[in-house]
Amino acid sequence: MQGVRRSYGPVPAVRDVTLEVRAGETLALLGPSGCGKSTLLRVVAGLDRPDAGRVLLHGQDVTASPPEARGLSLVFQDYALFPHLTVLDNVAYGPRMRGAPRTAARERAAAVLDRVGLADLAARKPHELSGGQAQRVALARALAPRPALLLLDEPLSNLDEQLRASLRAQLRTLFREEGAGVLLVTHDQREALALADRVALMRGGSVVQVGSAADVFARPSGAWAAAFLGERNLYPQEGGTLLVPERAVTLGAGEAWPVLQATPDAAGVHVTLAYTLGPLHLTLSPREAAHLQVTDAGTVLQAEVQRGACLLLPEDRA
Ligand SMILES: Nc1ncnc2c1ncn2[C@@H]1O[C@H](COP(=O)(O)OP(=O)(O)OP(=O)(O)O)[C@@H](O)[C@H]1O
């Protein structure tokens, strides 16, 4: 994508975005609702024309090409499968359309179904599948024609949390092994972190930060990015906003801070400490929760913030 712009009437949905998906990598477009992720995906797919800028595939300008001429596969939230075709024929459809003989198309379909763990269900019809199985069939169908690029728009959003978690793990391996370049749209930070090699963080139609998933999460470019990525310990200071990531906090050392609130859940215990800078939020594993001390004055937690592991970020949330 080079300098891509797209407005709907007076609303700029995408402003001057330049991004590259490298061969074999998964790039996540991550951002809040309405930031332009889907619009950008539609422009890459050829379902929408940019007002300015170009889309290049393997270096070739495809900005004016129709979707079917681009050699891409798309999976949307409502991954409509063909209801009258079996799972195998759904997946064989793409290779057939690209001119593969029936037997070769079916062989390829069977191989991809095997990869997503659904070899046993090849003869079923879509209405005989669970949501998670149907989603995997949709992914298999998208991968079967060996697309130059796979475009995914919130592909796991219709699934429950447990299924999402198990599919995320499988997909990363699948994309690796198939060697497909993937452009993934999501507003879910965990999805981006779990699936993507690189993340492009979008805000108001622009890319505000792009980098390896680990880097973007470890070093957000500003207070807005940090807050969007789920950081809660942000304190206004002179010259910017101080981010205290949880990994900067050592338990069982330093002062004992009063615990203002403690809420247990499946992940452990969420506590809020009355820290000098302001409320400090931490999630303690069951083992870490052993550091909580009940005293006459109430519950306290000994914790020390390593200043070197904190970041002073530009305050750009206004
Ligand atoms: N067909 C359209 N007509 C008018 N405005 C549109 C159209 N499609 C999108 N928009 C606007 O463009 C902006 C970007 O929308 P887009 O769907 O790309 O965002 P998104 O980041 O994908 O959001 P979500 O996560 O909610 O799907 C929004 O302000 C949206 O209201």
TrEMBL record:
One of its GO terms (biological process) is quaternary ammonium group transport. GO terms for molecular function: ABC-type ferric iron transporter activity; ATP binding; ATP hydrolysis activity. SMART domains: AAA. InterPro entries: AAA+_ATPase, ABC_SmlMolc_Importer, ABC_transporter-like_ATP-bd, ABC_transporter-like_CS, ABC_transpr_FbpC, P-loop_NTPase. Keywords: ATP-binding, Cell membrane, Ion transport, Iron, Iron transport, Membrane, Nucleotide-binding, Transport. One of its GO terms (cellular component) is membrane. Residues 1-229 form the ABC transporter domain. Gene3D superfamilies: P-loop containing nucleotide triphosphate hydrolases (3.40.50.300). This is ABC transporter ATP-binding protein. It comes from Deinococcus aquiradiocola.
